[in-house]
Inverse folding.
């Protein structure tokens, strides 16, 4: 069972895309988590800890019941078992900066939330576990995230720039409209989003194609709708980000966007 909603508090809607809670007593096996340019905070509501991930660490970091999942550019194999009971918040691109100041050091990493929130991370996790329904859990999570909200003043500039880039504006056109240099905008973008504008837009275009790759979809139509140059271009990007062909990804039923069950691949 999945419950997902937008935040009720208007300022929070500027940075948090969805609040969600999932319970799945049959969660078993493994799945591939596809790349995403957006960060999440995730709380395990069972005694099953979440795997942390740091490709640059000398040794694997210990698991945690509460994590910050940074934006990612690589697929990652995860166990489905903690999905027996999870709760979390998915941020808009750059939105996590309103809680964590900057995100550039979290890209392609999953970090124990206690690194940022100290004992408050476990306190909130315990409070979420004590709530007996999804709605109450989401309300508590929204209240706590709202309490910590500290929106950087230049986040509005980033959001404007992101809208321009997604509409098809070039980097020079975007910076002219924002009245800032490309260097300033790229620095701001990397600090709050975790990637350069070009790399983030590549991930988002891949995500759009992945969403549309259903068993009945024609590959050429998916490539066109996602604004790839042609079908071979889409194939190269899907193979780069998903480590599988578009045909293979298309054949994989997905209950949740961005999650590919291993037993289906």
């Amino acid at each position: 069972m999945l419950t997902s909603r937008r935040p009720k508090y208007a300022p929070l809607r500027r940075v948090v895309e969805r609040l969600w809670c999932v319970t799945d007593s049959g969660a078993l096996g493994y799945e591939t988590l596809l790349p995403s340019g957006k960060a999440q905070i995730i709380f395990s509501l069972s005694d099953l800890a979440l795997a942390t991930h740091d490709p640059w660490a000398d040794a694997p970091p210990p698991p945690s019941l509460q994590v910050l999942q940074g934006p990612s550019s690589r697929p990652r194999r995860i166990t489905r078992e903690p999905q027996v009971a999870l709760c979390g918040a998915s941020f808009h691109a750059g939105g996590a900066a309103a809680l964590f100041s900057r995100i550039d050091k979290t890209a392609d990493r999953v970090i124990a939330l206690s690194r940022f929130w100290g004992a408050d991370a476990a306190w909130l996790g315990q409070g979420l576990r004590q709530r007996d329904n999804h709605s109450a859990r989401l309300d508590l999570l929204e209240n706590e995230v709202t309490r910590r909200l500290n929106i950087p003043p230049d986040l509005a500039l980033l959001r404007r720039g992101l809208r321009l880039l997604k509409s098809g504006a070039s980097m020079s056109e975007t910076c002219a409209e924002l009245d800032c240099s490309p260097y300033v905008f790229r620095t701001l973008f990397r600090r709050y989003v975790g990637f350069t504008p070009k790399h983030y837009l590549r991930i988002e275009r891949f995500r759009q194609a992945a969403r549309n790759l259903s068993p009945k979809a024609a590959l050429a139509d998916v490539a066109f709708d996602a604004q790839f140059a042609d079908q071979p271009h889409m194939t190269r990007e899907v193979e780069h980000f998903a480590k599988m062909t578009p045909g293979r990804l298309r054949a994989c039923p997905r209950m949740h966007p961005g999650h590919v069950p291993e037993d289906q691949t």
In short: The first helix runs from residue 10 to 13. The mean pLDDT is 92. Residues 155-195 form one domain. The CA atoms of residues 208 and 226 lie 6 Å apart.
